[in-house]
Amino acid sequence: MWSRLNRAALFRRRSGSLLTGRQRQLVSTWSPLTTAFNSRPEKRINFTKNEVGLFSIPELTSFEGFYALKEKAIFKTEDLIREATSGAERTRKMVTIFDELSDTLCKVADLAEFIRLAHPQANYSHAAENACITISGIVEKLNTHKPLYRALKQVVDEGTDLVETSDVDRHVAELFLFDFEQSGIHLKEKDRKRVVFLNDCILQLGQRFMAGAVHPRTIKKSVLPEAIRPFFSTDGDNVLVSGLYADSANNMAREAAYRLFLFPDQQQEQLLSELLQARHELATTCGFKTYAHRALKASTVETPEMVNEFLDTLNDQLRPRAEKDFALMQRMKNQENGFEAPLASWDTPYFTSSLKKQCLQASASEFSPYFSLGACMEGLNHIMTSLYGIQLENTEMEPGESWSHDIYKLAVTHESEGLLGYIYCDLFERSGKPNQDCHFTIQGGKVMPDGSYQNPIVVVMLNLSQPRWSGPTLLTPSMVDNLFHEMGHAMHSMLARTEYQHVTGTRCSTDFAEVPSVLMEYFASDPRVLRTFAKHFQTQEPMPEDMLERLCASKHLFSSSETQLQVFYSALDQVYHGDPTHHHQKNTTETLRTVQEKFYGLPYVENTAWQLRFSHLVGYGAKYYSYLISRAVASWIWQTYFERDPLSRTQGEKYRRGCLAYGGGIPSRLLVSNFLGREVTPENLTKSLINEIDGYSERLRDFEKYVR
Question: Which of 84, 129, 364, 562 has its CA 20 to 30 A from that of 346?
Fold first, then answer.
């Protein structure tokens, strides 16, 4: 029914350094927020207060509380089904009932999914996993509840309800209906059972493919030249190749890793082929031309035809620009080798990183003292205050509220509107915690029956290193980008004041959900913004101006060739999930070769099958293009509203009220075109990216001096 229910989420020890009196005076002027995040939350012994439960949910003072939450959800679900199918006796809008039904299930499912992944205690994790299974079972039953489906479909088809409805009501009702029909409930029983079978096959094939995508390649030592064997892990007489070794300075090691790790694997080929076939059959059974048409329904671009037009248009503009990038990399390779050798796919990450290091004139770690966690959080707070009049306030938690002692809780408070929601910050690595940076919705925002607002609750999860005794956690520039990105998701959840939780914040189309988070990376790359918080954690001295300028410029090196690579990936994904009669190839590798010739500036490497390691084909099937669309829209917004003044309250309010506030409450294509005042077309999307790339081309020429 509701497809997002079936998928997972979409320390500061006080400084012991020896400071001078002047340094102590400077450090003491840090803001309360900076001080809090630069001081590790310590375990507190509770003698007097009763525990309030995880996220202040009374049932969760014990893991057994998940059983109570499940039972409450089951009983409430039954009541809501009766209300929705009560015919003329119904007094509330159908979409309101469905949203309450969705909210009831999501409050348990989203919470349980997070606790299953993040809680360090096995009894909580197991109870949460059991709750996930129970809610999934309820959803499966709802997916076959035809009276419930017919009640919703009647309202959607007639365009009216027993109670007056708005455009938002009708849009959200259509989204519920589409999610309902994902399981094939609208089909004949034979076809519906086939859809259920295909969905199960797709799930299992995807899991097996992802496991194989990361499995290391084992070969005999004798296969490798003796000179490069030390670059690889060994197991007796065997060598283990576990990745591409893209950062290796040894050209032979990079090439060997690329050819060995990406050597075609027949089992992976079979899994991918069967996965693509099952997806195509699923789509056609449900009445779609291709799986891509099914996946892109209700997206910003709406159809695969528009995606392909965008990729073709952008590729034409990128080709001459990417050729300049490759020419510079070729010069770098020739100079490093001392002889001419053609640039290859295994070279581009290495030479991109190499030039970045040269232009930075410092390692990433040398920038870290200016990016203490507390300083970065204060930087985010300054942005939110400047743009929206919002404060991020560190808030003390009650006993039992968090799942680990090193969690921060931020109250998001507007200067006149008051509390907007809470962001729990789970920022430090620990045993058993997923090694990924992500955002979880625990409770979505929505209007309650009494007119009050159910404030959103989210978690931002990173995996930063624990602080040392001598000072706070320090971030590299890439970690700063990740922090700003995830906080972009969190603030989208906070600022989307939607009527329905089904479309709150990040609960929108995939190709729009990343726009606010990608936009935050532009703030993290702007010198005017960085100057407000990039200060040394010991002295508060600002980052030297030349360091700051080099850092910001380095983020855009080789952006043409990197964007072209993303176009290639996106085009391949679209071809795989398009009409199979349009690409008569004997296997997925031959399709890859054909697509690479058209969309990428470097040739295919014989006897390699990069796509068999491309795990994104499972989670983002037919949607990998979303990264490019989100970046194009974010760049368009940045150029239109923030490039002139990134801390403008006027522009910030326009962005909040005209974009963020709607969540997924109106179609994302309409939202973007209304906000930007122009139609979302392949040409306009391409223009925003090319304008950005050309704007940084002068800086790239400045860095060519580092190539001797």
Answer: 364
